[in-house]
Fold:
Amino acid sequence: MALYWLVQGCQTGDSLVFYYSGHGSQQRNYNGDEMDGYDETICPLDFETQGMIVDDEINATIVRPLPFGVKLHALIDACHSGTVLDLPFLCRMNRNGQYIWEDHRPRAGAWKGTSGGEAISFSGCDDNQTSADTSALSRITSTGAMTYCFIKAFEEGHGATYGSILSSMRSTIRNTTGATGPVSSVVTILVSGGSFGGLKQEPQLTSNEPFDVYQKPFSF
Structure:
């Protein structure tokens, strides 16, 4: 209901923000629109009885209805969140800041874009990774790693463009060692071969269309 509320009545000039910090997961995809065979999900408080919210549902609710002149930013601090908005393009960036846009449009032709608006998402990690909740960053209290790094990018003067933000976030994660706080999913970390000695996640950027991430100014 909150997702429907966010986009209801939106019109040219509106700027929308969807921020989620919590548990994320995956489940088997059966309609063939996922490159890795899994849907990404977020887990609301009642997910054990009412089910998880699937990326297909998030896309249909807050991405596809966006009309021309409306901008949506999503900040998703959760495990397996790389493509949780099911946006068609993912910015694959290497350690040197070089990038390419990966085409994630479903082979079957399902439309995952907007109705003329703009949708951009920063997420805590790739689809096959977990996202930490740790004290290793602040050295004071446990924080969501993605949220902390996003804020830190602006505090350190790297908030000018989408590329500078993403590069800063990924650099902060890579340079963090000694992650001693609790993580979002201990079992997943152990099964996937993760480590408590450092953060094993790579923040991601997805969009409804490709753009020059170092030239496009960031603006809500």
